[in-house]
């Protein structure tokens, strides 16, 4: 009997003991091709020797020095590395240990910025339906994910969720993508105008929606309009790139492909690539200076800027750069998309195949004609995941369209080192599992 709070009591998962590139190996020696990077985490694959050595080297020198006393070389170097590759307006890195902490940090940065700026009425956070921003209370409060919110409602601060941009289901009549994107973006303006002026602090969105909707990229024009609205009404734009950032979509940040830049971006997962728990909220100099002029940020976690975590994350980013892996992301992503379309495009239960970079999903529906999502009670996601695991394949089931419960999507987020040959194996095993 396990004493761990496993997600599936009575049905213990296999015991992972080793990693080898895109594979995880269990205690019985069975190899699983990690086609989901865990949950869009393991962008370098498993047991990378350079990252392992960086962890050992830093561990031999110093593991941890609390930030109320010290900074460390790896923390400084990593921040410099990130800022050099980030749009020039984003200059200050606040480290955390994971995605939820990054989102909490972003929300508190936004709030304290307005307090420090003398606009204390700005406290409303607007986010989107079918979004996931994390498991801590602040992150749950802004996530549009009904079943994850329900048990905790009395503990959550009030926030507002507007529609997300989801052309596959949201487009009306003969609307073009651009018309649709602008219409949905304008809902933000309507929501701001419906409130007392000067009360909205921030709008939060995943640049490419991950865990609740299955790799939905934004439509053209959507984020440009969102940026304009935020600027016009003095609202901060927070982009949550915990899943879609750090190269997953083919550029370091997914927002670079939208021609905009947020005031705060949150990152985690691919930042440490699973080698260490680490994340960050990166903000503008203005936010940093304003908060600092008012006594400094009233926030922080014990392990922020952990030296081993920073050394690992820095090496991860250097490997990606040295091995030109974002080029591989872009090239193999095209092949993955073609292969998925070829194999599943005509499947009677496939409603859509979409994504960006090595962040792609297949949407499963009752039938191709009605495109009705599967009923939650069928637990299709669990069945496909189990079938895939039996076949030595890891795919990530993501929440449904209908009520946030149905496993209507299979998310694929393989490591950036994945080859075309491995994509063939992924597609074969997935077809068999489906
Ligand atoms: N934001 C997004 C967009 C996510 O996908 C996730 C995790 N799936 C989180 C935040 C929370 O990250 P973590 O699980 O590391 O706390």
Automatic annotation (TrEMBL):
One Pfam family named in its UniProt record: Aminotran_3
UniProt entry keywords in alphabetical sequence: Aminotransferase, Pyridoxal phosphate, Transferase
InterPro entries: Aminotrans_3, Aminotrans_3_PPA_site, PyrdxlP-dep_Trfase, PyrdxlP-dep_Trfase_major, PyrdxlP-dep_Trfase_small
Gene Ontology CC: one annotated term: cytosol
Reported cofactor(s): pyridoxal 5'-phosphate
Coiled-coil intervals, chain numbering: none
Keyword Secreted: no
Family: Belongs to the class-III pyridoxal-phosphate-dependent aminotransferase family.
Entries under NCBIfam families matching the protein: PRK07483.1
PANTHER family in the record: AMINOTRANSFERASE (PTHR43094), AMINOTRANSFERASE CLASS-III (PTHR43094:SF1)
Listed name of the protein: Aspartate aminotransferase family protein
Lineage: Bacteria, Pseudomonadati, Pseudomonadota, Alphaproteobacteria, Hyphomicrobiales
């Amino acid at each position: 009997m396990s004493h761990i709070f496993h997600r599936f009591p009575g049905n213990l998962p296999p015991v992972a003991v080793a990693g080898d590139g895109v594979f995880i190996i269990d205690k019985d020696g069975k190899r699983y091709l990690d086609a989901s990077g865990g949950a869009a985490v393991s962008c370098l694959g498993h047991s990378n020797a350079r990252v392992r050595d960086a962890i050992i080297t830093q561990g031999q020198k110093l593991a941890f020095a609390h930030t109320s006393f010290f900074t460390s070389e790896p923390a400084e170097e990593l921040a410099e590395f990130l800022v050099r590759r980030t749009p020039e307006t984003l200059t200050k890195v606040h480290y955390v240990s994971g995605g939820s902490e990054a989102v909490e940090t972003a929300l508190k940065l936004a709030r304290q910025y307005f307090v420090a700026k003398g606009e204390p009425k700005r406290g409303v956070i607007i986010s989107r339906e079918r979004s996931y921003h994390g498991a801590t209370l602040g992150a749950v409060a802004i996530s549009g994910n009904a079943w994850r919110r329900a048990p905790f409602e009395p503990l959550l601060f009030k926030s507002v969720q507007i529609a997300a941009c989801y052309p596959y289901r949201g487009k009306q009549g003969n609307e073009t993508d651009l018309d649709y994107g602008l219409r949905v973006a304008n809902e933000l303006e309507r929501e701001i105008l419906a409130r007392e002026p000067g009360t909205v602090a921030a709008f939060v969105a995943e640049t490419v929606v991950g865990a609740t909707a299955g790799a939905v990229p934004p439509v053209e024009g959507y984020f440009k309009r969102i940026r304009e609205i935020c600027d016009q009404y003095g609202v901060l734009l927070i982009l949550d790139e915990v899943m879609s950032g750090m190269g997953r979509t083919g550029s370091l940040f997914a927002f670079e492909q939208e021609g905009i830049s947020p005031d705060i971006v949150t990152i985690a997962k691919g930042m440490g690539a699973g080698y260490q728990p680490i994340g960050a909220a990166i903000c503008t100099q203005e936010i940093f200076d304003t908060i600092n002029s008012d006594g400094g940020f009233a926030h922080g976690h014990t392990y922020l800027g952990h030296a081993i975590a920073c050394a690992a994350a820095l090496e991860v980013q250097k490997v990606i750069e040295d091995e030109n892996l974002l080029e591989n992301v872009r090239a193999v992503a095209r092949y993955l998309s073609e292969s998925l379309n070829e194999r599943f495009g005509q499947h009677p239960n496939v409603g859509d195949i979409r994504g960006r970079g090595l962040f792609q999903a297949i949407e499963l529906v009752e039938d191709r004609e009605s495109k009705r999502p599967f009923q939650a009670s069928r637990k299709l996601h669990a069945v496909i995941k189990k079938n895939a695991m039996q076949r030595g394949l890891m795919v990530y089931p993501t929440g449904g369209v209908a009520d946030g419960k149905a496993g209507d999507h299979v998310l694929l987020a393989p490591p950036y080192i994945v080859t075309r040959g491995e994509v063939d194996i992924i597609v074969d095993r997935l077809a068999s599992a489906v």
